[in-house]
Write a structure and sequence with these properties.
The chain is an all-alpha fold and 367 residues long. It folds into 3 domains: 206 residues, no CATH class; 76 residues; 39 residues, no CATH class. It is built from 11 helices and 2 strands; from the N terminus they run αααααααααααββ.
Length: 367
């Protein structure tokens, strides 16, 4: 979803400022502070690490330089948010090393998804075959029931089709919602979501926006923590036990990433809800006739999705092919015209008032 250009919806200068502060400035400030402390320990230039003196001697000038450096770093990394999500999803390009890595990880996740699905079916079958002549299930049956539910929960982190499996956990969760959100109405989430969010209720947009901010914050924290771990290795590799310090930011990176996977479920759910509750507003904004039932809606949305899709696949055929059924537009009636003419007698319209020169005019009705 994020990997296929479903954009953020940030409205207003206040929202943009909040988004930048939470997603970029806060994690960037922590990262810069960590690196500055490492450099001030003398790990790079001396034979001894001195953490006790790392913060000694800091004055207002140092803090000002540190603040400016953190702000500049946040400004530099802020535009990379979308690319960062794509990287964590598993969109790694077509170079041979990354293609090989992507293939191996995708195959691993396909095997895991298949094994989890088989476990779910096995436990459900065991419960179904249990004796039903007693009021309560036995310990073994309860175990099968619990394990079936847990296997289903784990399998819900994968797309429902194996061909859509991605090389990472985050990629699989987001791909699942890319395929399922709007599918009941034959709406492609990647195509429909940017347009739906333009006409959606403010409350629904805020719901999507809040989940998106949490997702990006978790991924930005994970990435910068991973970089901080690498910086720690580079500075501490000559100092023996101090090298273990690199495990601290690495642990933060792992926890933040797993948190992002959890938030991705909420983000995908928010997008699905936004499509479900605001799709009729989209039809009206596009001047389309409102369908009478689900079958008619699905039939219309197949053509709508083809018309709105912004990609290169079969573009020429879509431009020249006649769509069946044709999308029918419902335009609003033209505004009514009020004729102005002098009247010999004052009309009974309470909105009437005498005009200069003795002419009178009926006040147009107001809605």
């Amino acid at each position: 979803m994020a990997g296929e250009s479903i954009p953020k919806t940030i409205s207003g200068a206040g929202s943009i400022g909040r988004y930048f502060t939470v997603v970029s400035l806060v994690p960037s400030t922590v990262f810069v502070a960590y690196v500055v402390v490492l450099l001030r320990t003398g790990a790079w230039s001396s034979a001894e690490v001195q953490f006790t003196t790392a913060v000694d001697g800091l004055d207002l000038a140092d803090l000002a330089v540190f603040s400016v450096a953190a702000l500049l770093f946040a400004l530099v990394v802020h535009p990379l948010g979308f690319a960062l999500i794509q990287m964590y999803e598993g969109y790694w390009g077509t170079s041979r090393p990354f293609a090989l890595l992507s293939t191996l990880l995708t195959r691993r996740h396909r095997l895991l998804a298949t094994a989890i699905r088989n476990q779910q079916w096995a436990h459900e079958l065991a419960v179904r075959d249990a004796k039903v002549d007693r009021d309560t299930l036995g310990t073994r049956d309860v175990r099968h029931l619990l394990l079936a539910g847990e296997a289903k929960r784990l399998h819900d982190s994968y797309p429902h089709l194996l061909r859509d499996v991605m090389p990472t956990r985050l990629g699989n969760v987001l791909r699942r919602y890319e395929r399922l959100a709007g599918a009941m109405y034959a709406l492609d989430a990647v195509v429909a979501t940017p347009r739906v969010l333009q006409v959606a209720a403010v409350r629904d947009v805020d719901y999507v926006q809040n989940q998106r901010i949490q997702l990006e914050l978790a991924l930005r924290t994970s990435f910068l923590s991973l970089v901080a771990s690498g910086v720690t290795v580079a500075l501490m590799w000559r100092h023996g036990p101090w090298l273990l310090l690199a495990l601290v930011p690495y642990l933060f990176s792992y926890i933040a990433y797993r948190g992002a996977v959890v938030v991705a479920h909420e983000y995908g759910t928010a997008l699905a809800v936004a499509i479900e509750l605001n799709r009729f507003a989209l039809y009206e904004r596009l001047r389309l006739s409102l369908p009478d039932d689900l079958e008619e809606e699905r039939h219309q949305n197949v053509q709508l999705t083809a018309a709105l899709r912004l990609d290169n696949d079969e573009m020429e055929s879509r431009l020249h092919e006649k769509l069946h059924p044709v999308l029918e537009y419902i335009h609003p009636p033209p505004p009514s015209t009020v004729l102005l003419s002098p009247s010999p007698t004052a009309p009974t319209d309470p909105g009437w008032r005498p005009e200069s020169g003795g002419a009178s005019q009926s006040k147009p009705p107001t809605s």
